[in-house]
Specification:
The complex is a heterodimer of chains A (121) and B (155). With 121 residues, chain A is of the alpha/beta class. Chain A is built from five helices and five strands; from the N terminus they run βαβαβαβαβα. A five-stranded parallel sheet of chain A has the order 2-1-3-4-5, with helices on both faces. Chain B is 34% helix and 27% strand. Chain B has helices at residues 3-21, 62-73, 82-102, and strands at residues 26-27, 31-32, 42-49, 52-60, 109-110, 114-117, 132-137, 143-151. In chain B, strands 1, 2, 3, 4, 5, 6, 7 and 8 form an eight-stranded antiparallel sheet that branches. In chain B, helix 1 crosses helix 3 and helix 2 (62-73) crosses helix 3. Classes of the chains: A alpha/beta (121), B alpha+beta (155). Chains A and B meet through helix 1 of A and helix 1, helix 2 and helix 3 of B.
Chain lengths: 121, 155
C-alpha cells in the first residue's frame, strides 16, 4: 500500500505544521494542495494511504472534496482538520464520508495521536 | 453588544495561543473602540454571519507577528513576509472558528481570513456593530482582539 499522504489546506502554515507531524510519525511522502480542486486533481493522479483536509477553503471545500472522493468509490481514510466544531457540522462531515475529525486548535500530541492511529490501519 | 458574545472570543484567543504556540495570554480590561485605526501593525480579520453578524480583528505588532510565526512553524523568521501573513490569517481563523463553536446556537458561518499590514491602515466595522477591544499581554508582545457583532435582523 502507498505510504503517501495528501494534505489539503489553503493555509501554508497549517500544511507545514501537519507535514512536520506526519514526518514525525513516519509518513515521509506528503503531497500538498491548497484547495479542494487541487486536492481532487492530486488524488486522481496518485494513490494515497491517507487524505487530510481542511473544511473552509476557496474554490472547493473539504466537504465537497470528501464527497467527490467518495463518489469515485475510494475508501481511503479522510481526516478532516478544521475549526468547524459544532455537532451539526461534525455530523455533516461524517455523512459526507470522513473517517476522522480533528478540531483546530489542536496540540502537537493530539495530531500525532490521530496520525498514529491512521498509520497503524 | 452582549457579554455572551464577547466571552467566547476571550476564551478562544487564549486557547488558540496556548495550544498552538504554548503562550499564556493575560487579559486586560475590555474597552470600546472609537476610531477606525487599528491598534497595531498586522491585522487579521474575518467576517461572521448567521443569527449574528459582524467581524473580528486580531491585531498585533510587527515583532509579535514575527515571533508568533517563528514559534508556530519552528523556523527562523526575520521580517513580515508571506509566511507571517499566512500564519496571522490562520490564527485569526482558529480564533473565530473556536468562538463560533461556542456560539453554536447562533448558527454562524465564518468567511476566509484577510490580513492587512502597515502602520497606517484603517479598518471600519459595519455600521451598528461598534467593536469592543479585548487587550492581552503575552511573552510574544501585546495582542488586541476587536469584536464587532450584533444580532442579525429577523427575515
Amino acid at each position: 500500500m502507498s505510504n503517501k499522504v495528501l494534505v489539503v489546506d489553503d493555509s501554508g502554515t497549517m500544511r507545514k505544521i501537519i507535514t512536520r507531524s506526519l514526518n514525525a510519525v513516519g509518513f515521509n511522502d506528503v503531497v500538498e494542495a491548497a484547495d479542494g480542486n487541487e486536492g481532487l486533481a492530486a488524488f486522481q493522479q496518485d494513490s494515497f494511504q491517507l487524505v487530510m483536509t481542511d473544511w473552509n477553503m476557496p474554490n472547493k471545500s473539504g466537504l465537497e472534496l470528501t464527497r467527490d472522493i467518495r463518489a469515485t468509490g475510494s475508501k481511503v481514510p479522510i481526516l478532516m482538520v478544521t475549526t468547524e466544531g459544532e455537532k451539526t457540522r461534525v455530523i455533516e462531515a461524517i455523512q459526507a464520508g470522513i473517517s476522522g475529525y480533528l478540531i483546530k486548535p489542536f496540540s502537537a500530541d493530539a495530531l500525532r495521536e490521530k496520525l498514529t492511529s491512521f498509520a497503524s490501519t | 453588544m452582549r457579554a455572551e458574545f464577547i466571552n467566547p472570543f476571550v476564551s478562544a484567543t487564549q486557547s488558540v495561543f496556548q495550544t498552538m504556540l504554548g503562550t499564556t495570554l493575560k487579559r486586560g480590561p475590555l474597552g470600546l473602540k472609537h476610531s477606525h485605526s487599528p491598534t497595531l501593525e498586522v491585522s487579521g480579520l474575518i467576517g461572521l454571519c448567521g443569527k449574528l453578524q459582524g467581524m473580528v480583528i486580531v491585531s498585533v505588532g510587527h515583532d509579535t507577528a514575527i515571533r508568533a510565526t517563528a514559534t508556530m512553524l519552528g523556523l527562523e523568521v526575520d521580517e513580515v513576509k508571506d509566511e507571517v501573513v499566512d500564519a496571522m490569517g490562520e490564527l485569526t481563523n482558529m480564533i473565530a472558528g473556536s468562538a463560533k463553536t461556542q456560539l453554536a446556537d447562533y448558527q454562524l458561518s465564518i468567511g476566509l481570513p484577510t490580513v492587512i499590514c502597515g502602520k497606517s491602515h484603517s479598518i471600519g466595522f459595519p455600521s451598528g456593530s461598534p467593536p469592543f477591544v479585548i487587550p492581552f499581554d503575552s511573552d510574544l508582545g501585546p495582542i488586541f482582539v476587536e469584536v464587532g457583532i450584533v444580532e442579525s435582523p429577523q427575515p
